[in-house]
Specification:
By secondary structure, the protein is an alpha/beta fold. It has one domain (2-246): 3-Layer(aba) Sandwich (Rossmann fold), CATH 3.40.50.880. The protein is 28% helix and 32% strand. It has six helices and twelve strands. The chain has helices spanning 19-31, 62-74, 76-84, 94-98, 202-217, 230-244; strands at residues 2-8, 35-41, 54-57, 88-92, 102-104, 110-112, 119-139, 142-158, 166-170, 180-181, 183-185, 188-191. It has a six-stranded mixed sheet, sandwiched between helices. A hairpin with a 5-residue loop joins strand 5 (102-104) and strand 6. It is globular, with a radius of gyration of 17 Å. Bound molecules: glutamine (GLN). Glutamine binds next to helix 2 and strand 8.
Length: 250
């Protein structure tokens, strides 16, 4: 099948090799006989809610976020419609913040958000930086760990009852105190973990691909044939060990 990815603002939100996430999706799709097509959707472009099986938004500094925030917020209705129709979303760091209700950045600048994720973000006075380990349960009964790297000044508060992507085992997460990291709404997930995220967490790449394939086919998420993930598992373990060894939080 063809999996259509809409990459939002690749020219603005692209720090920390977040593009590597797309490379992982493309390769893992190809190894299962699927084709991945990536279309850039940037400032001033129309976002057709039916045109993409997965939307990807990367991370960025406050300056880049402020440049695209009003344009992204104007695409909010289309993004919500796409997710309501079963499209998958992966939003990382700066993109994750702006898919919530808004972000007050370091300079006090108020950036509007999309409102897809039930959260708000305000810049704090200390940067939360380092390796992170999470425990996730995206499918009931199937617990997985997610390892990555965070670097953000924004503190994200989830609304009561909102579903985080995972619980923090080591690291800061959304705000350094709630123990929650990221957010999930249906097939949309947002997270502070980048670095990039998917090469060392192939199970999440496959979960996203399966959701995108379900959107493309109109059926259920398929069971994807396992791949040889020996190197990926090693990368995950190195990252997880670093997170454990990180000691205190601040
Ligand atoms: N500028 C945001 C913050 O510092 C997001 C950073 C990022 O995307 N790495 O909180």
């Amino acid at each position: 099948m063809k999996i259509r990815i809409g990459h939002l603002y690749p020219d603005y939100l692209n720090i920390y090799a977040d593009r590597g996430n797309i490379a992982v999706l493309a390769r893992r799709a190809r190894l299962r006989g699927h084709e991945l097509e990536v279309a850039a959707v940037s400032l001033g472009d129309e976002l057709d809610p039916a045109a993409h099986d997965l939307l990807y938004v990367g991370g960025g500094q406050d300056r880049e976020q402020a440049l695209i925030a009003p344009d992204l917020a104007a695409k909010g209705a289309a993004i919500e419609e796409a997710v309501a129709d079963g499209a998958a979303v992966l939003a990382v760091c700066g993109g994750y913040q702006l898919l919530g209700r808004g972000y007050r950045g370091l300079e006090g600048s108020d950036m509007p958000g999309v409102g897809l994720f039930p959260h708000e973000t305000v810049a704090g006075d200390r940067r939360m930086i380092g390796d992170v380990l999470l425990e996730c349960e995206l499918e009931p009964g199937s617990k997985r760990t997610l390892a990555g790297f965070e670097n953000h000044v924004g503190r994200t508060r989830l609304d009561p009852g909102a579903e985080p992507l995972g619980r923090v085992v080591a690291g800061f997460g959304n705000d350094g105190e709630s123990g929650a990291e990221g957010c999930r709404v249906g097939r949309a997930v947002g997270t502070y973990l980048h670095g990039p995220l998917l090469p060392r967490n192939p199970w999440l790449a496959d979960w996203l691909l399966a959701q995108a394939l379900a959107h493309a086919s109109g059926g259920d998420p398929p069971e994807l044939e396992p791949l040889d993930d020996v190197l990926e598992a090693r990368a995950h373990n190195v990252s997880a060990r670093r997170a454990h060894g990180r000691g205190g939080r601040f």
